[in-house]
Every structure is written in structure tokens, then in C-alpha cells.
Amino acid sequence: MMAFLIVLLTSLLALTTLPAAESQLYTNYYQKSCPGFAQIVQDTVTNKQITNPTTAAGTLRLFFHDCLHNGCDGSILLSSTPFNKAERDADINLSLPGDAFDVVVRAKTALELACPNTVSCADILAVATRDLVTMMGGPFYNVPLGRRDGRSSNASAVEGTLPRPAMTISQLIEVFGSRGFSVQETVALSGAHTIGFSHCSEFSSAIYNYSKSAQSDPNYNPRFASGLQQACADIKKNPTLSVFNDVMTPNKFDNVYFQNLPKGLGVLKSDHALFNDAKTRPFVELYANDQNRFFRDFAKAMEKLGVLGIQTGKRGEIRHRCDESNY
């Protein structure tokens, strides 16, 4: 009896330490109101990923851009109106891929048919991201549900809240640190670059200033830089050209991204900086040598990211459409 009381008291104390909004999230939130929720999302993302293999990386990036700016409220999904320029149209978000938006819309459409006015777009994005990461070979992690959709989205408020490809480590640490993430968590989340791609425009200035002398730019492996130059040769004619962030296993969620960095096989300035900076290099080396540790730390960081700035209860709404507020 005494042991039971101790366990009960410990559980109650744990609940009281949770933020009020976070404590209203449950992994089985839709068990009664929309029992087919998990299966509908899983079927949708599976079909989309098979048809469009870049969907997983794009959705993961979309989730990052939603949560790091103003919390995980689905505000990145809102379209601009004649009276408001939404955050999805901010300069840094213009390169977010259409397939990522589309997979959320498809899941929302199916869910509205199964259980109207029940499932938020923010929850769909969170679960779709997890399912796609797992589908690519990454870790499974819990996604508590019950987020409400935000009603506002403003492009002018985005600047400075999201990581940019050319940021220094100090700047990256500041961006993630302002959201409560440690240096190690920042490195773990950067491992999302194990899948996906970057546009040539995001790093072209570095590779085209590169010479054959190793001293001129020690960050890039010379052969790799040459390959990037060839891949991005037509950038002036085609600004949408892109390359994989992990050239070794681009379609598999693993720790090879971290193994690439000491070899000069990083694509972006921020990738190179992770290995070159003394604050982050130990974690790069840790994850390069231990994929299980990377997966465990990435999963924990994603769980933390997924409840950032959420709206629950009477705050926010359940949108009828993911691209527009109900009023």
C-alpha cells in the first residue's frame, strides 16, 4: 500500500511540473473521437512518400519551421490573404517543398471525411513527420496529441527565429537556445540533414570561390567541391537546382551525415561549422560513432520540439482547412 502511494504521489508531482498546455496532450487523444486517426495518417504518408520520395525530408523541415517559430500550431500551413502576408511566404520559407504541404492536406481531407471538425492540422503535421522519419529508417518516438491550430501567421515576424544555412555555430546555438534547447540537442536536431536536400543557391558562393588549393577552403573535400560545382553548374538558368545533404545514404535516416562532416562532405556552411567548432564537435563525433545514441537523443529532442509553444483547450481552433483559419 505504501509503495502504491509513493508511486501515485510521484506521478502527481510529475504532472504538476509540466507546463499547463503540455499536460493536456495525450498519445491516445483521438481514441474515441477519431479512432482511425493513426491509420489514416500512416496510409496517407506512405502513399505520398512512395510516389514522391522527397516528401519525408520536406515534411520534417516543414515541422521544424512551424515549431521553431511561434510554436507547433500549424501556422506555417496558413496561406497569405490580400490583407496579410503569411509566414509561409517569408523569404526563408519560400523553399519549403510543396509535397510537404500536400501530404498534410491529403491527410486532413481524409480525416475530415472520417471524423469532421475533430483533428487539428498541427497534430497531423506532428504525426506525419514522425511516421515519415520512422519510414526512412529513423527512430520511433511518442507524439502526444491535442494541439489546436493557431489563427495568426505573419511573415514579418519570422526573421531571426529560424536557422539559416550560413549561420555560425554561435548563431545556431542562440536560435535553438532561445527555444530551450541545449548545444547537444541542437547537434542532434541538426542530424535531420541525414535526409533531404539543399538548394545550390544556399551554398553556391562557397563552392564557386573554391580553388584546387586545400588552403583556400579547408571545409570542402576537393573532389566533393568539384562534384558540387558540376551539379550546380546551371544555377543561373535553374535556381531550383539542389543536392542531397548526405551524399552517401541520402534516402536513409542514419548517422552517416555525422560521419561525412570530418571528411569535408558537408554541403552547407552550418554543416561544416558543426565539426569545426569546439562546442559542437564532441557531439558530432559521438553521433558519428554511435547511431543508437544519435537516434535516442534525436527522438528526445523531437518530443521536446513537438510540444513547443502549443495551443490547447480553448486557445486556437480546429481548422476546417489547413490553409485558412475558420474566420
Could you name the key traits of this structure?
single chain, 327 residues, mainly alpha, Peroxidase, domain 1, Peroxidase, domain 2, 2 domains, globular, disordered N terminus, EC 1.11.1.7, metal-binding, iron, Haem_peroxidase, disulfide bond
Please state how the strands of the largest beta sheet are arranged side by side. 1-2
Structural class: mainly alpha
- End-to-end Cα distance, whole Å, is 53 Å
Beta-strand segment tally: 2
- Alpha plus pi helix count: 13
Uncertain runs with pLDDT below 50, 5 residues or more? 1-18
Give a short account of the largest sheet. 2 strands, antiparallel
Q: What is the H/E order? A: HHHHHHHEHHEHHHH
In helices, the fraction of residues equals: 40-55%
Question: What form results from the Cα inertia axes?
Answer: globular
Average pLDDT figure: 90
| CATH topology-level name of the largest domain | Peroxidase, domain 1
Sheet-strand content, in percent, reads under 5%
The level-1 CATH class of the largest domain? Mainly Alpha
CATH architecture of the largest domain: Orthogonal Bundle
Total tally of structural domains: 2
What would you report as the Rg, rounded to the nearest angstrom? 21 Å
Question: If you had to describe this structure to a student in words, what would you say it looks like?
Answer:
- Helices cover 44% and strands 2% of the residues.
- With 327 residues, it is an all-alpha fold.
- The chain folds into 2 domains: 21-160, Peroxidase, domain 1 (Orthogonal Bundle), CATH 1.10.520; 169-304, Peroxidase, domain 2.
- It has a two-stranded antiparallel sheet.
- α3 (55-68) packs across α5 (121-135), α4 (98-114) crosses α5 and α12 (281-289) crosses α13 (291-305).
- The radius of gyration is 21 Å and the shape is globular.
